[in-house]
Design goal:
With 300 residues, the chain is mostly helical. 65% of the residues lie in helices and 2% in strands. It has 2 domains: 141 residues, Tetratricopeptide repeat domain (Serine Threonine Protein Phosphatase 5, Tetratricopeptide repeat); 76 residues, DnaJ domain (Helix Hairpins, Orthogonal Bundle), CATH 1.10.287.110. The longest helix is centred in the C-terminal third of the chain and has 37 residues. The chain starts with a helix and ends in a 13-residue tail after the last helix. Keywords: TPR repeat.
Amino acid sequence: MSTTTEQADDKENAETDKVKRPTKRRSDEGVGGHQRLTNSKAWSSASRNVSSDHSGKRLRFNPPHHAVSTPQTPRSKRSGEYEKAYDLYTEALTIDPENRLTNAKLYNNRAAVCVKLGRLNDAIQDCTQAIELDSSYVKAISRRATCYMETECFEEAIRDFETLYKLNPTPENEKLLREATQKQKMSMKTDFYKILGVERFATADEIKKAYRKLALKCHPDKHVGASEDEKIAMEKKFKAIGEAHKTLSDPVERAKYDEELSQSYLKDLMSDRTNAQTKVNVNTRSSGTPFKSRFTFHYV
């Protein structure tokens, strides 16, 4: 990460960056636009109205006191505030296109607003724009990886978490990478029983009943007013429900699927045991002392 962005990130210690007014001192980043940025109404509004708490999980706004959101504030009103913040960041992005570091922050902050609005695909695009402007921008990489996880794009998430761990090799980032890898493995093994919410030994009638209930709930016609991301998620879920029912309602296909599922679980179990034993052996060799059991065995 560039020095300017890194210093700001360390100082703020929050997921949503505060966009600072640029100084009048000349630099290589957008020299001609500094004064325009300083005097811009959009810049002042975006900087003043949006901040984040320490965890970065909840964006809060600082408009006049009577307009501040509370837990009791209607969702439509909170959504309107996020839309306003989105518009402010969008306007601020037009002020000085040559100011790469500042615009990277603006894109990252707008991505945070998109997440709150449920527009995950838009958030991913904004994070990508921020990363293109600053390839070592940890916050944008982290946010994009999280959005990829939410949209079940696990391969893309793994790539971002790998980059994140290289830039910032913390135990937390290592854990995120490991969890993303596990999620990808699980996604490759579709559990039709889990999709329909039935036991593996469910009867044909139970499977049919579960399918009808879920199909009615997830049908696209039931989510006409949802956001674009929600529609895509529901369409994907509706399709998975149909595939699960098609397989489990056919006795021959179900028997074949059950065999494949059993073999897959057995393979994973053996792999986990092998990895655990390898770890024990490595730890024993590195300690320089033979492994000593805590138990005493008596032969009779």
